[in-house]
Design a protein that fits this description.
The protein is α+β, with helices and mostly antiparallel strands. The chain folds into two domains: 93 residues, lambda repressor-like DNA-binding domains (434 Repressor (Amino-terminal Domain)), CATH 1.10.260; 118 residues, no CATH class. It is 41% helix and 14% strand. Helix 2 packs across helix 4. The radius of gyration is 26 Å and the shape is elongated. The two termini are 48 Å apart.
């Protein structure tokens, strides 16, 4: 299916409307996960200056239309957003916006120099609307409205939906925090042999044997992910040093250095125990 046909199909299926700019959605989502442009540059191999231009809506700083669309898709999916919806919204707001043609037609001269009463009335109405707009913009209410959050329809975050993800224990007491990992691992032994403990924010993608992503998200420090007991799972991460892997309750050596990118790590308990030295 061509890109245009795919875009038409996405446009027909969209059930959301938002006036928020794509760049603002990306910026808020990135800030929510505590990621810097430089960190994302290392993972996506997209220059931080291009990512910054996307967030600011400065399309003139991007190399071209095709690159801009690709950047939006990659950046959105990295943050757990719906890539197709974000690309469609981006095209509507900037790249695909149609310019209105300004048509000028000759106006016949009237015999009288006195303005038509309809024109006078329209002018007065336009002045009232202009004054109301200026009052609204420059003299806002004392109690401003809250800034709208990113629309839920744009988020495709498996972080919030994955049943195997256990929320950070930061809100619990110190004693509960220290005891929680052991209890989790103990309960998970019959079905979940592999446990991922996040000690530093890390982008994680896990695909099944057919190549479909079952998790694609930035996991925060303190999160614990119980890997489903499926065969053929592989993992990629943008911060190998920020992930602690446990198999059958045993802590394995680090996957890599902080900020190091690792791809196609087999999530097979027996393979991990043999290939990674304790």
């Amino acid at each position: 299916m061509s890109e245009e046909s795919k875009e038409d199909e996405v446009g027909e299926d969209l059930n959301f409307h938002t006036d928020m700019q794509v760049g603002e959605i990306l910026r808020r989502t990135r800030t929510h996960y505590g990621q810097s442009l430089q960190q994302i540059e290392q993972v996506l191999r997209i220059r931080a200056s291009n990512l910054d231009a996307l967030e600011k809506g400065d399309i003139s700083q991007l190399p071209g239309r095709v690159y801009a669309i690709g950047f939006v898709r990659s950046y959105s999916e990295y943050l757990g957003l719906d890539g197709d919806k974000m690309v469609h919204l981006f095209k509507e707001q900037s790249v695909g916006a149609k310019k209105k043609v300004d048509l000028s037609f000759p106006v016949p001269a009237t015999e009288s120099k006195v303005p038509n009463r309809y024109i006078v009335g329209a002018s007065v109405l336009a002045l009232i609307v202009l004054l109301a707009f200026i009052t609204y913009v420059f003299f806002p209410d004392e109690n401003p409205k809250d800034v709208p959050s990113v629309p839920d329809s744009l988020t495709g975050s498996s972080l919030n939906e994955a049943p195997s993800l256990i929320e950070s224990a930061n809100q619990q007491t110190t004693e509960q925090t220290q005891a929680a990992p052991e209890a989790i691992v103990e309960d998970a032994k019959p079905t979940n042999r592999i446990v991922l403990e996040i000690k530093d924010a890390s982008w994680v993608e896990i695909k099944n044997a057919s190549g479909a992503a079952i998790l694609r998200q930035v996991l925060k420090a303190g999160d614990i992910y119980l890997v489903p007991p499926e065969e053929g799972l592989v993992m990629s991460t943008g911060n190998a040093g920020g992930i602690v892997v446990k198999v059958d309750g045993k802590t394995l050596s680090s996957l890599g250095e902080d900020g190091e990118i690792k791809r196609k790590i087999p999530l097979n308990p027996d393979v991990l125990l043999k290939s990674i030295k304790r």
